[in-house]
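Ticket #4471: structure output looks truncated?

Reporter: J.K.
Steps to reproduce: submitted the chain below (258 residues) through the standard prediction queue, then opened the result file.
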Amino acid sequence: MKNEQKQRVQETFSKNKEAYVQSSTHNNPEDLKLLIEWLNPEKHWRVLDAATGGGHVAKAVQPFVNRVYATDLTKEMLQNTAAHLSDMANIVFVVADAEELPFLDGYFDAVTCRIAPHHFPEPASFVSEVSRVLKPGGRFLMIDNTAPEDDQLDQFYNAFEKRRDPSHVRALKVSEWEALFYGHSLAVKKHLKRQKTLPFSSWVARTQSCPVEQHAIEQDLLSADTHTRAYFSITSSDSGVEHFSINEYMVLLEKGSC
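Returned output as attached by the reporter:
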């Protein structure tokens, strides 16, 4: 099951590699600026950007550090990203599984991972690997979509996200992430919970090309009850859904010394 899911991830991102490079959501300059401010990188650092996707974080971090290792499970995605960033000599591109990182213990000063962990079949393995490859005192900055703490809203969100994107596994609740961090010697230093507004048409088309499925997903949103529509800020017009909002969690962690 785990390998089948990872194959779905590779198929999805191979097919949509350029869409992720161009995505306004992934290329949000204010978001990337805040990431740099929180991480506060130093010139001698080695940084791992796990599941780099379109390479937006690697590109933003590289001017401030010695070397960035940009990894991704999908070779085609990484090859496309490397072509876009070919003029940045201090980025190394490595095909790698975020749950089985091919690096030595304590090798990195910092690890980043942005808008990716909801694709991972075993997030506990991912957090364990991040902790392993970080130096004591090293920093981990993660940004990802998260599920509401309410179970019904959690199920609603993860169901329509999975229907839109077969490579989606599950967006965890913030409370679930915090439990994983605590269990792997990663202390929360700073965090931000926010809502992210998404344009429906470009969001659904990025990973779902079938018009019938696109329409079905739109109907799921339009037919939601009043409470659900309000929570996800679903806005619509005569032509259909225009925007909706989901939860996003940004967290800075530090690895303990033992």
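Triage note (M.O.): checked the attachment and the full token line is present. Residues 69 and 92 are 5 Å apart (CA to CA).
Status: closed, working as intended.
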